[in-house]
Amino acid sequence: MFRSKKLFLSITSILLFMMLFVVGCGTNQSVGTAEQPKQQEEAADKGKEEQTEEVRVIEHAMGKTEIKGTPQRVVTLYQGATDVAVALGVKPVGAVESWVEKPVYQYLRDDLEGVSNLGDENQPNLEEIAKLKPDLIIASKLRHEKVYDQLSQIAPTVTHETVFKFKETVELMGKAMNKEEKANELLSDWDHRVADFKEKISTKLGKEWPIEASVLNFRADHARIYVTGYAGDILNELGFVRSAYQQEEEKKGTVVVKLTDKEGIPNMNADVFFVFLSDPGQDNAVQKTYEDWTNHPLWKNLDAVKANQVYQIDEVAWNMAGGMISANVMLDQLYEHFGLEK
Description:
five-stranded mixed sheet, alpha/beta, globular, disordered N terminus, 14 helices, 12 strands
């Protein structure tokens, strides 16, 4: 009897062990199945992180710069770059002071609230830049060639050759800031607007199109003709043409013709004038210059004056800002000037 009971207990123990073994195997298999999606998810997240942190080499006016991932703390050192940063949906941590409407242009003021003022565009405050601990600096060879090495020691720095080629600034910053898709979208939208304007103005003016345009600027002691530059480039893209005189100056590489004598007034001639006044703080002197020149008989004999095609324009949008947003503001004003539907 005792031996039978002992045999029964042994058989029962073996059966219990086998049941526990099977259950244990099943449990382990279940855990493994649950862990697999989690591991795949972690691997995918890691892959995304590695992709985001990928090092890109950006070619620019001062060489090549390595940039890791998507910069979060961007500093902009010329007006067009600040404008383009906002257009790309990025609020810089620091930006140089605006030329007029200081410290920030009115049209960007809401978007740049709280952004650190880094001083003059020609001589930005390097100590303040360093304090911001940026991970990307957008500069210009024209303005910052002498301090490029110092800027590069603070953070990866990319430069544009000049400050007014707004489409090139969009392309450069799109690559540097890992925002190429948004940059392409901005440029595509611009191309569509340009095509729309050209179609509508050519329809309205008919055989008169294209017409000659002059961008004129009056200062305290002289007048200027902007042969090329920001507004000039945009007008050319929109289909306006320049007088024979201005075309010759452009061939020489002239950006601005300074006129200190009223005898040069005939060189301004065109079908339409876009005029802005400069030198804030000297408004009375500028106004006096403008009145003296525009009351001169030579002025009254110009084509645009006789045709009543003289437009006062926004100095910031047409000359000072140099960015993507301001280019669209300038184009908006041209639609308005010529009575075209946007």
